[in-house]
Amino acid sequence: MGTLCSLPRAQNWQQAQQITRFPLQMANLSGLGLSEPWLLRMAGDRHWQLIAQTAGQTGVALHDADGHSIYAAFCSTALRIAPRARGLMDAQVTLESTLYQVSSARLGSVHVLSHPEMGILACLRMISCFLCHDETGSNRRLMRKSLPGLSPLPLAPTEVMALERSARDAARLARSVGPETPILCYTPLPALDFNAVGLLYFPTFSKIAEMARPHWNAGITRNVTYLSNLDAGEDILVETMDAGLLLRAQDGRALAVID
What we know:
Layout: H1 13-16, E1 17-23, E2 29-30, E3 33-34, H2 36-54, E4 62-63, E5 69-81, E6 92-101, E7 106-115, E8 119-133, E9 142-145, H3 158-174, E10 184-186, H4 190-193, H5 202-212, E11 220-226, E12 236-241, E13 244-249, E14 254-258
Antiparallel strand pairs: 1-6, 2-3, 4-5, 5-8, 5-11, 6-7, 7-8, 8-9, 10-12, 11-14, 12-13, 13-14
């Protein structure tokens, strides 16, 4: 995991980087060690915070040049949690997060959770683009946007660019395969699975994958390519695809590839 989590320093690190230290407690842990939902939510918030800071904003409510609300929606994530389930309670850890430029329309971030003696406990790579709702407000009809005022960012490291390429490959594959018999059907709940802007929250995709194929031992490796979203009240169907999972909406649209 060490090479996977290298963090080249950003030239404008005051804006593009956050480093915090804190103890791991109940909210940060699960029966298998680090809590995946906590880490995804924490890193997702930091990704948005770094974008807002780099754009010179206060708060994380992002807007386009016309003042319309836009969202830093995730295109792909790659998570590695070390197989350590014991000795984490009250451990003093450091979470280091850095924001990068992936392309003209996409930003990436790397989040490394480490302990001075235990080493790297987790690494999460994330890539996002900017989206907004159209006049219908439906999550099925999201539009690409841009965020004004972003300061120049360092180019994403090799590992993040590799995630971008693999996500594009996964998207092409998902859209080329036909529906299979689902192994799980799940109806997301507004109070638990959607975020404050009404989108199916990205940690929900990992939650559904875990429901379909649970981990029983410490340590998690999970790559997610997010392809689409859906409205509250719609079902998600989970199908097997190669060594991974394909999540579909009830109308057949591919929502995510997870491996």
